[in-house]
Amino acid sequence: MARARQPSQPIAKHPSGLRYTFRIVKIILSVALLLFTFGSSSAAEETSFKDVKVPSSKGKLVKGVLAFSDRDHAIEIHPAKGEPVIIPYTQIDKCSYEFTKRHRISEGSIATAPVGVGGVIMLTKSRSHWLEIDYQDQELPKIYVLRMDKGDYLKILDAVRDHTGKEAEILGNADKR
Questions:
Q1: 3-state SS string over 49-106?
Q2: What is the pTM of this model?
Q3: Are the CB atoms for 99 and 170 separated by under 8 Å?
Q4: pLDDT over 80 (residue 42)
Q5: Are the CB atoms for 52 and 133 separated by under 8 Å?
Q6: Rounded to whole angstroms, how far apart are CA atoms 99 and 154?
Q7: 18-22, 76-80, 118-122 — which is least confidently predicted?
Q8: Using CA atoms, how far apart are residues 115 and 78, in angstroms rounded to an integer?
Q9: Which of 4, 19, 35, 128 is the most buried (most CB within 10 A)?
Q10: For residue range 64-113, what is the model confidence (pLDDT) as tens digits?
């Protein structure tokens, strides 16, 4: 007994009348991938770090943003309060990295020392990571120092090397970094 052939289901069409076949979807995805790849590589890259502390006009450390702008070919430092500092890559002489350790002694830890908690806190040390940028501004040598976050300092040092082409000099004992 031969089976009668049933009429095939009509192929679903988009309201625009275009049939979505594997070949068409593959072409659309390939074109989209090419546009995304070449579009993102031609755009100027900017890397920024939000967890830095920069000196204010009064000499205190305030929150700031450190940005490496390939479009402007400059390091841009934007303090929370005050004017931004822009250092062109070509004017940078060198960059230096250093960390400092100090005991956590504050008014709060001294007040709680008799209880025991403050004594434990006073025995621990805090570590601060510093980036020093030596540059020329109108033929005058200048130095800008900023404090980096402990989670970002290695990324910032890599960004200095990648964007400026200068390796950050490590001051102090590099083995304990």
A1: EEEEEEECCCCCEEEEEEEEECCCCEEEEEECCCCCEEEEHHHEEEEEEEEEEEECCC
A2: 0.62
A3: no
A4: no
A5: no
A6: 12
A7: 118-122
A8: 42
A9: 128
A10: 999 998 888 999 999 988 889 999 999 999 999 988 876 556 555 455 55
